[in-house]
Amino acid sequence: MNLPLHPAIVHFPIALFITAFILQVFHIWRPYWICRTTSMWLLGFGVLTSFGAMLSGKQEAIKIGEGGYSLDVLKAIQNHELIAEITTWSSLIIFMVWLYLFFKYMDDTQIDKLALAFLGLLSLSVAVTSYFGGALVYFHSLGIR
Prior knowledge:
By secondary structure, the chain is mainly α.
């Protein structure tokens, strides 16, 4: 049985990045309701799983490329790959910068607000990537065999 890994892995970074954003909103709104580093941990786990999703997605794209699909489908795959790679690498950069700023300026709560802004942009990027990936499945029927 040849089960694709990409559909199983891809939901983790989506959920982790968006949950990190939501919990960061709660932290800014009510700082003592939630630990200050919870969103940072979620972002870190999201970075790890996003690299797994990216690598498994590349393997699926190689399989799909051998299938003889139309140019529109291949263009849609390229768009999805481009935005997914931007999302994955930017999540790593955001995580590393956040860690650096957190440990360098541990008492500065402005870092939390800056992290919220970047987590919001990252969540938007994840939503766009998810839309393009969902379009590949539901409009072009990729991965349904």
